[in-house]
Amino acid sequence: MASNAAHFDFSGARILVTGGTSGIGAGIAAAYLAAGAEVTITGTRASAGDYDTDLSGYRYLQLDVENPAQVDAVAQAQTQLDVLVNNAGIALPSLGLDEWDPDNFVRAVNIHLISGFRLARGCRDALRASELAGGASVIGIASMSSYFGMGIIPGYGAGKTGLLGVTRAMAVEWGAIGIRANCVAVGLCESRMTSATIANPEWSAPTMARTPAGRHGTPEDVAGAVLFLSSSQASWITGQTLPIDGGYTVAG
């Protein structure tokens, strides 16, 4: 695969990436850091030292997105902010939980929709004060399940579908104060959350058969699009969702 020849300059920009300790979030955080930004990441553990990977280049904040008090505390810690990437999440079936159970359904929607809305609303004033070229940005990580039903993840899918709607609403409501809102809808991408799916041919083979690009996505594929959407080159793009799926959604 060819290396990415595009270069973004986020020198001095303040970025918050939730769930930035692994997978897609880690790829996005690393890309912003390489572009010169000051990057804050969140994770569920007490400190950055509790992870096996070296997170010393980042400011670290503990965040359980199911805990509204922690969500509010992370928002309040952002006195200056240019870009919020709402990435944290998990498909509960990967933990052996049935999302058709109403309580688990509610958990999934809270994790993937309500908590991200709460954090964005809490960060609004910090984002409003941004002087980033192209304006401040809220970036949501959507999914193929934002477009069509996947029976095993009704709650995850409902949350990711709702994310597109709340992103449009934020774009309309906050455009006048210099905040753009967009999503990337990610296909089957290599991460800790999807490792079991990718390893299971029953799930991954049909996806590959329908994917024109002929491969799974990587965190780097997602990171490039996120940096573009929050850059000055995308200053007239807001309220939109960009599929990053190797062509999956357009294939028959």
Account of the 3D structure:
The longest helix is centred in the middle third of the chain and has 27 residues. The protein is of the alpha/beta class and 252 residues long. It is built from seven helices and seven strands, in the order E-H-E-E-H-E-H-E-H-E-H-H-H-E. It has a seven-stranded parallel β-sheet with strand order 3-2-1-4-5-6-7, with helices on both faces. It has a single domain, classed as 3-Layer(aba) Sandwich (Rossmann fold), CATH 3.40.50.720. It is globular and about 50 Å long.
Could you tell me the CATH topology label: Rossmann fold
Strand content: 15-25%
Radius of gyration: 17 Å
Oligomer: single chain
